[in-house]
Amino acid sequence: MVPRADHDVARVATRGRGITTLGRVSTVYDTSELNNRAAGLAAAAGAVRSGRLVVFPTDTVYGLGCDAFDAAAVRSLLEAKGRGPDMPVPVLVGSWTTIDGLVLSVPRQARALIEAFWPGGLSLVLPHAPSLSWDLGRTRGTVMLRMPLHPVALELLREVGPMAVSSANKTGFAPAATALEARDQLGESVPVYLDGGESGENVASTIVDLTGPEAVVLREGAVPVSAVSEVLGLQVEVAR
Questions:
Q1: The model's pTM
Q2: Do the Cβ atoms of 121 and 221 come closer than 8 Å?
Q3: Are 79 and 158 within one domain?
Q4: What does DSSP say about strands 216-219 and 237-238: parallel, antiparallel, or unpaired?
Q5: What does the DSSP 8-state code read for residue 147?
Q6: Do 121 and 27 sit in the same domain of this protein?
Q7: Between helices 151-160 and 34-49, what is the axis angle to 10°?
Q8: pLDDT band per the 50, 70, 90 thresholds, residue 12
Q9: How far is CA 109 from the centre of its chain?
Q10: Where are the extended beta strands (E) located within the chain?
Q11: Exposed, middle or buried: residue 56 (CB in 10 Å: 0-12, 13-18, 19+)?
Q12: Residue 124: which CATH number?
């Protein structure tokens, strides 16, 4: 191993293994190789369980995540991004059924949209279960949930459970499309980076609010409003 300077951070690369250690506190794992993927997922799961942050690929951009039920970890996530609790952190899940334990109830419309678009680019806003001890920011009793369409993300989520996840970038800067872009912005605040190559098309998820009597699209993104309307059998309004 040969140390060299890299963006003023000490970097030691192990050739052929796809594992790069940054300043002895952050490690990037190339998940394109099976052994590295297993090691990276194990390291990421360990980090999440110990209240630390991880960066991993999703079907949109790279995500910065932590245990959704660890309030201190969520605060660390917000601090790493440089933003406050006024913008609540969404939650990613690894299966359809996980949602049942997170929300007050799962309405028929939510079931229909989950079956049609999960995993994928659709986020649902629902009243969260009042018994949950989490602090995702100023949510006003709601939570935004999504199941991403990316194998590395799904493996991690199925291992550790629901994660609070935001885009892996500093607030005001472009979302990261690669693990190294995320590392350049977030640096040593994140101990584990899972490198899944360049992310998919940088299109945000469509957000559907199901907290009121009628479904409302808060943001149109990867899933067209027309597709949401077709699944629900009615014309869904878009928030102004």
A1: 0.88
A2: yes
A3: yes
A4: parallel
A5: -
A6: no
A7: 40
A8: very low
A9: 23
A10: 4-6, 9-14, 19-22, 26-30, 54-56, 63-67, 91-92, 122-127, 142-146, 163-167, 192-195, 206-209, 216-219, 237-238
A11: buried
A12: 3.90.870.10
Its domain, for residue 132, covers: 103-147+203-240
For CA atoms 68, 69, 74, 77, give the dihedral sign: negative
Q: Which amino acid is at 128?
A: H
Cα distance between residue 60 and residue 152, in whole Å:
13
Element (H, E) at 123: strand 122-127
On whether both 177 and 109 belong to a single domain, the answer is no
Cβ atoms 77, 164 nearer than 8 A = yes
Q: 144 near 124, Cβ under 8 Å?
A: yes
Please name the residue that has the structure tokens 């192990």. Answer: 14
Q: What distance in Å separates the CA atoms of residue 189 and residue 167, rounded to the nearest whole number?
A: 14
Confidence of residue 20 (pLDDT cuts 50, 70, 90): low
Over its C-alpha atoms, the chain yields an Rg (Å, rounded) of 18
The residue behind tokens 């899972």 is 194
Distance between CA atoms of residues 141 and 161, nearest Å: 20
Residue tagged 């999440």 (tokens): 48
- Residues β-bridged to residue 144: 125
What SS3 state is found at 208?
A: strand
* pLDDT band for position 85 (cuts 50, 70, 90): confident
| Residue 77 identity | L
